[in-house]
């Protein structure tokens, strides 16, 4: 297999596993492609493009919940379960767009205007922030009672979770970490917080992959730089791995301690930035 295909397969594997952990998958994929000679700007876009693979897997896994939300379109203001889930997805996604879109544009501008060293320093520092957030999530998960809130979040919680998810547009910030934490703080059980976070991820994954395409921000140049076949391989591998990972992560994520792993990646990124300076 051509080296670029191995690189794409590795990126897809990382996306399929890490997307469902409180570790920033797009950041690791950015570093993988950057190490393979792709510019940081294109590598960042490819990290977003990889989300399409996880999106297809999550869409199938949560097809019943998504179908329920779609049925809520007939009566969006009702108190029924389908309407409540619809409002949660709508308001959280709205807040994500308001916060995340400006961040995405700023990140692209920063990566385009700065050297690889500065970009890696930024990623390393943000990974350390994620490590701290993950550590807080782990502490909250350990304290969360099995009898915590199980109802779908209301308007305030939905907006808070969505705004936090928007911050994940920053390289190094884990979407899972910043959405699970406020759900736990708002009284939801650990299991329910993970389920609600992953359900919201279905929309977020689609947006993360589609926004750069809709804004004509580098999808074509990034794919041309890496190659069409490697991009397809990355998405397919991400979809297959995500499908088999979601269920396992939902059962095991409460016990995983990924804050140390994230900190190690962040420190190694900072070290690499110093070495290549």
Mean pLDDT: 79
How helix-rich are the residues, as a percent range?
A: over 70%
Number of helices: 13
Instruction: Specify Rg, calculated over alpha carbons.
Output: 18 Å
Structural class: mainly alpha
> What gross morphology would you assign?
globular
- Our estimate of the beta-strand percent is under 5%
Biggest β-sheet strands, sense, barrel: none
First-residue to last-residue Cα separation: 32 Å
Number of domain modules: 1
Number of strands: 0
Question: Which consecutive residue ranges, at least 5 long each, have pLDDT under 50?
Answer: none
- What is the element string, with H for helices and E for strands? HHHHHHHHHHHHH
């Amino acid at each position: 297999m051509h080296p670029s295909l191995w690189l794409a397969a590795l990126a897809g594997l990382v996306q399929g596993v890490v997307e469902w952990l409180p570790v920033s998958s797009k950041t690791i994929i950015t570093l993988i492609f950057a190490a393979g000679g792709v510019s940081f700007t294109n590598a960042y876009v490819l990290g977003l493009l990889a989300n399409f693979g996880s999106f297809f897997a999550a869409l199938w896994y949560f097809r019943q919940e998504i179908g329920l939300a779609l049925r809520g379109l007939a009566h969006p203001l009702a108190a029924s379960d389908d309407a409540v889930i619809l409002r949660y997805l709508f308001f959280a996604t709205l807040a994500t767009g308001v916060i995340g879109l400006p961040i995405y544009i700023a990140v692209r501008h920063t990566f385009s205007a700065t050297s690889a060293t500065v970009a890696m320093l930024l990623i390393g520092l943000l990974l350390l922030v994620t490590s701290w957030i993950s550590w807080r999530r782990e502490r909250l998960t350990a304290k969360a009672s099995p009898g915590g809130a199980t109802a779908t979040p209301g308007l305030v919680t939905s907006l808070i979770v969505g705004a936090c998810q928007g911050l994940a547009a920053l390289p190094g910030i884990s979407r899972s970490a910043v959405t699970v934490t406020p759900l736990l703080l708002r009284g939801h059980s650990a299991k329910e917080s993970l389920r609600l976070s992953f359900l919201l991820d279905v929309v977020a994954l689609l947006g993360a992959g589609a926004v750069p395409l809709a804004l004509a921000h580098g999808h074509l140049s990034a794919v041309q730089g890496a190659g069409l076949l490697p991009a397809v391989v990355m998405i397919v591998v991400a979809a297959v791995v995500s499908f088999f990972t979601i269920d396992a992560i939902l059962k095991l994520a409460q016990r995983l301690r990924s804050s140390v792993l994230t900190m190690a990646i962040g420190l190694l990124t900072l070290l690499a930035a110093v070495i290549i300076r």
